[in-house]
Amino acid sequence: MGNPAAGCFVPGPDTTRDFRDALGQFATGVAVVTTTGADGPVGMTINSFASLSLDPPLVLWSPAKASARYPAFRDAGHFIIHILAQDQETVARGFARGPSPFARAAPELSANGCPVLAGCAARFDCSRWGNHDGGDHRIIIGRVDRAHRSGRDPLVFMNGCYGKFTA
After folding, report:
1. Contact between 32 and 97 (Cβ < 8 Å)
2. Could you report the per-residue pLDDT of 67-113, keeping only the tens digit for each?
3. What pTM did the predictor assign?
4. Which end of the chain has fewer CB atoms < 10 Å from its terminal CB, N or C?
5. Where are the domains of the chain?
C-alpha cells in the first residue's frame, strides 16, 4: 500500500484525502456550466473541463453523480461552459454549493435557451454529443456550436485555492 506521508499510496477508501490532495497538484481553470432544466436555469462550478477534438469541435466535462444538479446536466441537450475570468471567484463560489445564484436574478438566455454569464474569459455554447459513465461522475461531451473569447485572464484553481497564473 505505501505510506501517504512518504508520498506513495494506493488510492482507496482509506486514502481518499491523500488522493484528492495529489489531484490538487494539477492547476486547472475554473468554469461554470449552465443549462435550463425542468425547474429552470441551473449552474454548476467545475474544473473538469477539457478540449477533446478540433474537428469536429468537441469539449468534455464531468459532473459528480451525487450532485443535486446532476440530473439537469445528464439530460441536457444544450449547455454552456463559461471559463471564468480571474476576478470571478465570487461567481465560482456562488455556483459551487448551496442555492443557485439564479434564484436571485433571472439570467439572460442564449439562442439555445441556456443561461449566459457575463464577463467570462471564454464561453462555449454546446449541443450534447455524448454522455458516458465515469465511475462516480458522468463524462459529458459537447459539440461546440459557438465559441466566444473576451481576452480576459482566466481564474485558476490549485491545492484548494483560487488564484491567477503568473509566467
Report:
1. no
2. 999 999 999 999 999 999 999 999 999 999 877 888 777 789 999 99
3. 0.89
4. C
5. 29-163
